[in-house]
UniProtKB/TrEMBL annotation:
UniProt xrefs under Gene3D superfamilies: Ribonuclease Z/Hydroxyacylglutathione hydrolase-like (3.60.15.10)
Protein name as it appears in the record: Metallo-beta-lactamase domain-containing protein
InterPro entries: Metallo-B-lactamas, RibonucZ/Hydroxyglut_hydro
Sequence ranges assigned to domain Metallo-beta-lactamase in this UniProt record: 25-89
Length: 100
């Protein structure tokens, strides 16, 4: 298994962003998939890290995000969705009921 630890683009349409759990680097990963001009964020940071993630998205020219996929209901994967929804506005969310 290959582990990618460097933020940024790592293949044709996929980016890795450090989720900064508890404001500590290197302990959670968030992905962005870009396809035909639309971007999907996979999982969210914790609420405290949401603004840092938005800053990183802007640095990587991945702002705004149009879609959000929440994989499951653990706090380190879904806690920041409401804050991101306020930031992005028209954000389409894909998740099970238990994930949000």
């Amino acid at each position: 298994m290959v582990h990618i630890h460097t933020e940024g683009k790592f293949n044709e349409n996929t980016y890795l962003i450090d989720g900064m759990m508890f404001s500590l680097p290197g302990n959670i990963t968030i992905y962005v998939i870009e396809n035909e001009g639309e971007r999907m964020l996979i999982d969210t940071p914790m609420s405290l890290s949401a603004r840092k993630i938005v800053k990183k998205l802007k640095e990587l020219d991945l702002f705004p995000i149009q879609k959000l996929l929440i994989t499951h209901s653990h706090f380190d994967h879904n806690q920041g969705w409401e804050k991101l929804k306020r930031i992005f506005g028209d954000l389409e969310i894909f998740a099970s009921e238990s994930a949000i």
